Amino acid sequence: MRTFVLFDLEFTTWPEALEQDWSAAGQLREIVQIGALRLREDLSVAEEFEALVRPVVNPRVSAFFTELTGIDQETVDRDGMAPAEALGAFLGFCRGQSVLSSGNDMVVIGENVGWARARGEAVENGYLGAHFLNIRPWINTVAPVTSTANTGRLWQTLGLPKPAAGHEHSALFDCYSFAAALRHLCATGAVLPAGV
Predict the structure, then answer these.
(1) Cα four-point dihedral sign 176, 85, 108, 3
(2) What is the pLDDT of residue 195?
(3) What CATH architecture is 3-187?
């Protein structure tokens, strides 16, 4: 049976970083959490992937990041994987699949792979083995009410039941919100974009 992957990221951030496109000195979008779901053709969940990652350039997560995501420094230090290891595992999960995001998170994956390689770290399972696709424009076209909602709020914006335990800005929860939105939109007649 054919499957595809949905994913979401949480990465280092600071007050006004989003509005300034992470342009302040030293503010890189280093991945701290990766969440992904492998979905079957009927949009049911076949498998989960979750990884916590230790940032390198900014090893101390900001108070703003912790307030937003609930991920604190102690958890990152204790449970975080090296970036190359986490990225390799995630890309292995995605290998040979269509990989959907609700935004340009594939750009952040590419940035982080590039930084890891520039540090001389080997990243297994390069990202060319997966077909990444941002379907946020499709979601917003099919359901214009979602245009200002982040991925973790899609379920709420569409008036759906809470899709899983957890909260928005937790990468895996955001994937469940994303999946619930896709199931709802397809059940109401929408057809996923070509390439999925």
Answers:
(1) negative
(2) 77
(3) 2-Layer Sandwich (3.30)
